[in-house]
Design a protein that fits this description.
By secondary structure, the chain is an alpha+beta fold. The protein has helices at residues 2-22, 28-36, 51-57, and strands spanning 40-44, 66-74, 78-86, 89-95, 101-104. The mean pLDDT is 80.
């Protein structure tokens, strides 16, 4: 039993060390704990969005908006949460990986 606990502790330590290098330092601990719980919200760069989402964002409806932050979200479903601003207006757009708008807040 002690061996199993030791192996688990080592695996979590190694996973944490590797993940901390992959995620930026501000989000590392939150991202790791969220990922271990089965849900994830990880900040990504706009270039990392799927091609279908990028194509949607190039449409006239969105191309005047400036992207301020992008998150890949996995909970019950997988989607991309994109925070955008246009002049003084800020909105959050949620798209599935096919580029279809799920929600606009």
């Amino acid at each position: 039993m002690k061996n199993i606990i030791l192996i688990c502790a080592i695996a979590l330590t190694i996973t944490g060390a590797i993940s901390a290098k992959v995620f930026n330092s501000q989000n590392a601990i939150a991202s790791i704990s969220t990922f271990l719980q089965g849900d994830a919200k990880i900040q990504i760069r706009p270039e990392e969005l799927p091609a279908a989402v990028k194509k949607t964002l190039a449409d006239d409806k969105y191309n005047q908006w400036e992207i301020t932050a992008v998150f890949w979200v996995k909970s019950k479903t997988e989607y991309y949460e994109i925070m955008m601003k246009k002049e003084l207006e800020n909105k959050v757009f949620k798209f599935n990986k096919e580029g279809k708008l799920i929600e606009e807040v």
